[in-house]
Records
---
Amino acid sequence: MNKIPTDLIKAINDNDLIVFVGAGLSFNFKNVDNQKLEGWSNLVVNILNDLQSKGHEVNDLMPLIKRYDPIKVLDLIESDSELSKKDIYNFIKKFLILSDKNDYDLHKKLFELSKKIITTNYDTAFEEAVPELRRSKAYKGRNYELTKHKDKDAPLLFKLHGCFEDADSMVLFPSNYKNLYENQDRDAEHSLLVLKNIIINKTILFIGVGMGDFQINNIFKEVKRLQREYNQKHFIITNKTLDSTLDFLTPINISNFDEINSIIDELLSIKKKI
C-alpha cells in the first residue's frame, strides 16, 4: 500500500484536486474495428498505413517510426504537400471511435475523485464514461466552457490538445503545437492562461502521462520559478524514476499499471470520509 502524501490528502479534503490524464489510460482501449489504440507511435503507424492504402508514397517514412519520436515523423508528414491532411484527419475520426465493450470504470472513478479533468487525449473515453461531460468539455472552439474551472462543483473536461470529433481543434502536427504554445491567438492564450491558473492554485495528479511534452513541462517550470517556496505541490503516479528536470512533481511509485486502480480507490476512500 502506498503512503499517500499529506499535501495530496489536503487537496482532496479541500476539493482542490485536478486530475491530468495522458495516453497511458487509453492504451488498452479498442476502437469499433477491434484495434487497440495503444500510444502515439501506434497512431502514427496507422496513419501511415492508411495513407499507403490510399496510394500515397510513405515507404521512406515507415522505418523512421522505430528510430524517432512520433512528433518527428509527423513533422515530415506535415512538410510533404503530397500527403493529404484531409485523409489523415478523416482516418483519425474513424480510428478513434471507441468500442462500447471497453471498460471505463477507472475513468468513472477519476471523475468521482475530481470533477475537473485535464487530458491531452483526443479520444472520448471520459465522455463515454461520464455522459454529462459531453456538455462540459472545453477545447479550441469551445473555450467558453473554461470559465467553469473556478467553480469547484462544476464538472469540466479540459481537452488541452483537442478532440478528434472536431479536427480543427486537434494539436497533432508541430505547427499545431506552435499555434497553441507560441501563439498570441485569443483561443490559445485563453487555454494557457487557465492552465497556468490551475497550476498556481490547484494540486494536479498526473495519471498515464509520460511527461514528454516539453511545452507543458516548461509552463510548470516557469510557474515554479515565479512561485518559489509558495509553489503548489503536484503529483504523478508512475512506474519510472523521474528525470531531474521534472522536479516540480512528486512521484507516487507503482510497479505496474494495475496498481493505479488501488491507489485511486484509496484516494476515493479519503474523499468519502469528508
---
Amino acid sequence: MLSTTLHAMAILLRSCRWDWFINLSASDYPLITQDDLIVAFSKLPRDLNFIQHSSHLGWKISADYQLQRLVVLLTKTSEDWIHDWIHTPFFLGSAWTILSRSFAEYCVVGWDNLPRTLLLYYTNFISSPEGYFQTVICNSENYRNTVVNHDLHYIKWDNPPKQHPLNLGMQDYRRMILSSRPFARKFKKNDPVLNKIDRDLLRRRNGQFTYGGWCLDRKNGVCSGARRRENMGVLRPGTGSRRLKALLTKLLSSKNPRRQCR
C-alpha cells in the first residue's frame, strides 16, 4: 500500500495542480460534499499535514522496530550514519492522512535521503503506512512543525482496540455528524446508513452525483453529472462546511500548537 501511495503521488505531482493529497480506501465514505471540503480548507495554510501519530509504540511493536533497526545497521559501515540512525525516533499512527503538496513532493523526491532511507526501513513492515509518513515528518526539520495530530476520520474501535475497526451502521449516524469529521470508516457494502448519508448529508439522489456547484442544474436542483460552463468556479457549501470549519479551528487553536511531534 505504501509504494502504491507514493506512486500515486508521483503521478499527480507531474499531471495536475493540487494543494493536498487525501488517501482513502474502499471502506471510507464522505460525510460532507466536495464543495464543503474545498471551502473549509480554502483558508488553511497550504503547508499543513493532517497525520495522526504517537511515539508510544507499545512493547511488541517497539521490539519489532528495534530488530528492523539492527538489520539496517548491519548493512551500513559509516559511523556517522550509524550514530544518527540509532537516535532516530519512530512514530506510529493512522494510515489515513491528508498531506500537503510540498510534503508529498519531499516524500517522493527525498532530496535529503531521509524519506528514501525510511522507505527501505519500512519495506519489511506489515503496516508500513501506519508509521512511514509519521516518522518521516517528525524527523524532518522542515516539516515537523507542519503536522496536525489528527486524521480527520470518524472510526469506531473495540476496547481495547483490535487490528481492524468496527463496522459503522445506523446506530452511529448521529455520532458521525457530531464528530464534524469529513470522512468515516469502515462500512459494510450497501449498508442502509450509506443511503441516509447520501440523502441527508451529501444531497445525492439515486443515480446522481453528490450535490455541488460544478454540476448543479438550477432548474431541478440536482447534479446531473454534466459539467456546466455557467457553473465553473461556483461552490455550494452546506452545513458540512461549517461543521468542518469548527473542527479545524479547534485543532489549530492555541491549545493545539504546531509543535505536535512527541
---
Amino acid sequence: MIALVVSFSQVLDVTNNLGQEIKKNKYILVNYCDTKNKFCNILKPKYDELAVQMESSQFVIAFIDCSLNKDSCKNNEVNNYPTLNLYISGKLVEEYNFGPKEVVDIKKWLQAWDGKEL
C-alpha cells in the first residue's frame, strides 16, 4: 500500500496582490520574505504552523516573496527579511520585532490585537 500525503499551506500568497489583500482583510499579518534568504527559510515552518493555529481566527496569515515583487516590498519600506507587518483595516499598525519569532510568541502578540479597531 502506498500512502499519499498532500499538504496545503494555510498561508495566503499575496505576492501578486498585496495591496488588494491588505484592503480586503480586516486583520492581516504579512511576512515579507525572500525565498532564498536563510532566515526566511528558518521561519517558514513556524509561520506555516502559525497559520494552522490561527485558521479559525479572523487573522489572515499571508506571505509575499520580495524576490518576485520587489516594488511592493520597497513601497512598504521593508529593508530586512523576514519582516512581519500587521495591518488592521488597511493600515499598518505594527511590525513584529519582539525577540524570537516563535509560534507561541507571534500568536500571543496577534491575540493582543484581536478586536481592536482603527
---
Amino acid sequence: MSSIDGNYAESATPMLKVMRIQAPELASTSTPSQTCSHLSSSLILPDSFGVIHIGETFTAYLGALNVSSTEKVTNLSISATLQTPTRRFPMPSPLENKFPTTPNESKNYVPINIEPMQGLDSIISRPLEETGQHILRVEVSYGGTDPSQKSYNEKSSEGENPETESPRKLLRKFYRFQVSSPLHIRELTLRGGESTCFVSLAVENASSPENGKGSGLTISQNDFQPFTGLSAQRVKQVTSKSSSQMSAVELFDDSGRLDPGESRRYLFKVNAASEDADMRGIASGDELGKAIVTWHKSMGEAGRIASTFVYCPLSSVNLSEESKTPNDGSRFVVYGSGLSVDVSANSAYRSTHTSSNSEKTVPLDEKFPVTVEPLSPPSEMIVGVDIDIDFLVVNHSNRPLDLQLQMRLPMMTGVVIYGQSFKNLGVVRSNGGSAVCSVKLIAMVPGLFHVGGCYIVDLNSGMEIKQPNLMSVLVLGHKSD
C-alpha cells in the first residue's frame, strides 16, 4: 500500500458496475405466431436496460470492485439519483456514505473501505410514474484523508500547511433509458341521468405486433377510482358457470390476456353516493375519477397504470336555433341527459364569474332559463291508451316567473297531448325554484317516437322558451283480446 507522506494512504480506483435487475424474457421463435401462447423452454437474459414500462418498479444493481491487488479503496461513497422528465428522486443505498466536512460529522463517520480484490454491492429501486427519457445518475467518490487523522484545531499560518491532505476523487456515470406506456387507455363517457354516468374504458396493449417484438400482458385487475362523493360499480355479464364448468376458450377469454395490438373494454357505472352529491347531481365538467389498471408480464413482473382524469361530458343539446317543425332530426332527449343539472351549474358559475365577451355560444342558462324534465316516464305505450306523466319545471333565472306549460299539438307526432294542452304553474321562485305538473298523453300509431312540442311561457313578459324533445317512447299496437 503506497503512501505520499505517511499521513494518509492513497486509495485504489474502484470499478463501478451498474445493471438493471429484471426477469428473463421468453426467447422468440424464428417464425412468430399470434396463435402460439405456450411458454418456451428457452429463456434469454437482457443485454441492456430493456423495455421499461410506466407503473413498473425500476430495480438496479450497484457494485464497486477493487481490482487492485495491493491497495484498498478508502472512504467509498456511491450515491444514485433518478432524473425523470419533470423531477429528480434520490435513491438511497447502504453504499451512500457522505464524507464529513465538519468536526461534528467526523465523530460519527464510519468509512467504507474495500480490500484488494474484493467488492461491495447494493440494490436500489424506485416505482416509475412518468413516461419519457429517464437518467440514472451514479456518483462515486473515494479517497481523501481519513477524518480521524484530521486536526481541525490546528490552524496553519499563512504560507504553511502542517497537514498534507489527500484530495477526494470523483467519478460520475449517466445511464439513459426510455420509459413507455404498455397500455393505451381510451375513455368514453355517457350521461345516464342527473346523478349517473357510464364510463367505458378501452384498454389496448400498446406494444407493436410487428416482427414479433411485442410482448403480451395480462390484465389482472381493472378498477375505477371515483371522486369524493361518488361511487363506481363494474358492469359486466353475469354468468352462473363456475370455473370448473367453463371451457378452455372461455377461461382464456376471461383471463385478461392481451397480445400486442389487442384490446378489452370495461364498463363502469358512476353514481352520486353522498347526500350532497345526490342533491346537486353530476354536472358537465365534474370530475368522475380515474381508472387504475394492474397488469403482469409473462414472467410475473407487475405494474400499475392510471388513466387521465375522466370528466362528465357536456349535454348534447343543440344550442343553435332549433327547427320549428316536428321531428327536426335531433336525437337529443331531456330525460337522462342531465340538462337541468348542467343549466343549474352553468347559472351558478356565471353568477360568481365575469362572463367573457368572446363567448361565441349562448350559455345554457340563457338558452334555457327554465327547464322541463319528465319524472319516471314510461319506456312503452300502447296505441289508444292515455297515460299521465309528471314533469318537473325548474326556474334557473335570477327572478321569479309566472309560468305556463304548453304542449303544442302541431309540433307533436306519434304521441300527442290528450285533453287540455296547457297548465298554469303560477309564480315559480328564482334560482332553482320548481313546480311539478301532470300532463296526459296518448299514442296514435305504433313506432319509436320523441315526445316534443313543449313550450314554457312567462305570462308577464310573453317570453317563450322552446324545450328540446322530452323523452323517447316505444309505442306498441293494440292489445290482443
